[in-house]
Structure prediction request, 399 residues.
Amino acid sequence: MAALTEEYFDAFQLLLKAPSKDAVRQLCRDSFSPGAPESRRLADEAAETLSVSVGEAQQLLRALHALTRHVLFHSLTTPEEILALFPDAFHPNLKNLMTKILLEHSPAWRNEALGNQISLPRLLEMDWGVDMKTCSDSAGRMAVPSCLLHMKVQDARAPGDGSVSPLSSVTVELTRETLDTMLDGLSRIRDQLSVVASK
Amino acid sequence: MLPLRFIADALPDSVASDFQNLNKFSEQQFVSLTDILFRFLVEPKEAERFLLHLSEFAAENGMSAGPLRNLVKNLLLVPQGALKRNVSAEQLKEELVSLGLNEDKAIHFSNQWKVHYAVLSRLAVGQTLMVNQLVDMEWKFGVTVGTSELEKAGNIFLQLKLVIRKGNSTENVYMELTLPQFYNFLHEMERAKASIDCFS
Prediction:
C-alpha cells in the first residue's frame, strides 16, 4: 500500500483547477477502482477536465487512489481523522471538500471491498427437489424418497482480463439419513452463530 | 411343466436338471445348503466365506465342489429374480414346484425367502443407482479479521466442503456462504426434510 507522500499532496493541488465540486467528486470516485492509476482513458479524461498534461493527471490519479485506499484500509470514519492526514499548509477549502467526499463514499467502498475479498467459490443459487424412487433394476417395487440438491457456485474474484469467472454447477443426491445428518450439522452451525452474535 | 411366469428370464436352461439334482439331497442337506445360500445373500460381501462353506459342505456330503458351485450359482438367481419381479412367497413356491423341485423343498426355500425378505429388499434398494451421492459434509465458519484492503474487517463467513461420490471415487466441492445465504440454505433444507418426512 502506497504511503501518502508529500508528492501526492502536491498532486492534489491540481484539483483546484477543477471546473466544479462535482468534477472533484467524480475524480475521487473514479480513482478508487483497482485499475484506476494505470487507466489511460481515465488519465486522458482527467487531463482534459483539469487542463493539465496526461503525466500530471496520472500522478493525480495515483495520489487519489492511494488516499482513498488509505482511508478505507484504516477505516477512517470521522472528519477529524481524515483532516489530520493533510499537511498544515494545505488549501483549507479543498481539504474540507475532499474530506467530505471521502466520508460520503466510505460506506459504499467498504461494502465493495467486503464483497470482493478473497474467498472460496461463492454459492449463487440453490434448488432442491424430493423424488420418490419406485423401482430399479435391482428391486421391482420400492418407495424410497430421495432429495436432489442443485447448487450454482462461482469463483469470487473475476479474472483480471475482464471476463466473468466461470459458473459451475453441482447436483447432489441425498438419502433421508444424509439429509437428517446435514440438518443436524447446519443446526449446530446456527447455534454457534447465535453464540457469536450475542457476544 | 407349466411355463414360468415370474422368474423365467432369470434362469438358465440347465435349471431343470439342477433341480432334479437338488431333489436327491436329503432334507437335512437341503436345509444346510439353503442356510449357506441365504447367509451369503444377506451379507453379499462375504464371498470368500460363502465359497468356504460350500467346499466344506461338498466335502462333508461326498460331493465334488465344482458341480456344486455351478448348481448353487444358478440357485442364487432364484431369490434375485424374485426380488426384481416382486414375487410373493406363495408364488415363489409354485414356481419352484413347476420347475421340478419337490414340494417340501420348495416350501422350505420359499419360507426362508420370506424370512429374509426384509433384509434382502433393503439390500437391493441400497444398491439402487444414486447419482452424485453426498457422502460427507464438513464445515467451518469464522470471522474475517482483515484483508489487504480493510485493516479491520469483522464479517462472518461460512465454508462448506461437500464430499460427493462419483462412480468409484469421491470428489470434494468447496464453497463459501454469507450469513443470509446460510440461513436461506438451512431454511430450504428444513423444507426438504419436511417434504421427505411426508413420505414416511
About this structure: Chain B touches chain A through 57 residues (CB under 8 Å). The mean pLDDT of chain B is 86. The radius of gyration of chain B is 27 Å. Residues 103-126 of chain B form the longest helix (24 residues).
